[in-house]
Amino acid sequence: MTRISVVIPVLNDARMLEICLHTLRAQTRRADEIIVVDNGSSDDSVCVAEAAGARVIGEGRPGITAAAAAGFDEADGDIIARCDADSRLPSDWLETIERHFHTHPDAVAVTGPGRFYDLSRVATAVAQVFYIDAYFLLMHAALANNVLFGSNCAVLAPAWRRISETVPRDDTELHDDIDLSFRLFPSATVLHDRELVVGISGRPFNSLTGAHRRVRRALHTLAIHWPDQRPSRRWQARRAARLRTR
Questions:
Q1: What's the pLDDT score for residue 246?
Q2: Distance CA 176, CA 217 (A)
């Protein structure tokens, strides 16, 4: 029987975490394990997680990369699903993720987009096009593959274990989902389901500083990987892998 672990990094997001965990309890396919990684919260995030029956682990190194990686390392599921504390999950989220892996046995990861639930109608439309859609389009070109979206993704445990030791845990400027996507092989099957949508907060776009921080981290992550994994090399590697399987 397939086991699914859900990893949720948190830092002072108790009220949003409470809602996220409520949506997890309402899943048509329940999680076998929920791991909340406390990254140094000073609010009652830990109490909220424990009250909901989640297993709480601490990660002293700051940053979502270190927190998410710590949760992935602790997970004992066959599938490791990842969302954020502010994610609001549809009731069939885990059921859909599990079905994708069963239907596509060659897949190593599954992801889908987010939809902002706390922006105005106009701001939501703009953010969907210039952030969500642009993210998937531009990163696909850079990766020669689908990119993972950290608020809404799942990875097979063996795939994570193969790359876990290579993930830098001390770089707080790393865009963790882009970094993880780069560390998967260019030929790896990463499924992107446009219908697998989770609600996400638009807080990063409440200020220019928040938006700029995300762009800066994306560019920093690309700069780390591009000396050895330029888009042209990844596309060539992907084409070569396809030719070998014909």
A1: 62
A2: 9
**Residues 6 or more apart from 99 whose CB is under 8 A from it?**
none
Domain range for 183: 4-244
Structure confidence at residue 144 (pLDDT) = 94
Task: List, as own/partner pairs, every contact residues 214-218 make where C-beta atoms lie below 8 angstroms and the sequence separation is at least 24, other chains included.
Answer: 214/175, 216/173, 217/173, 217/174, 217/175, 218/175, 218/178
**Residue 115 maps to which CATH number?**
3.90.550.10
| Structural domain total, the chain | 1
Burial class from Cβ neighbours inside 10 Å (0-12, 13-18, 19+) for residue 106 reads exposed
Element (H, E) at 201: none
Compute the Cα dihedral for 233, 163, 213, 147 and give only its sign.
Answer: positive
231-245 per-position pLDDT tens digit:
999 999 888 887 776
CA distance 85 to 134: 23
Which residue numbers in the chain have pLDDT < 50?
Answer: none
What per-residue confidence (pLDDT) applies to 241? 80
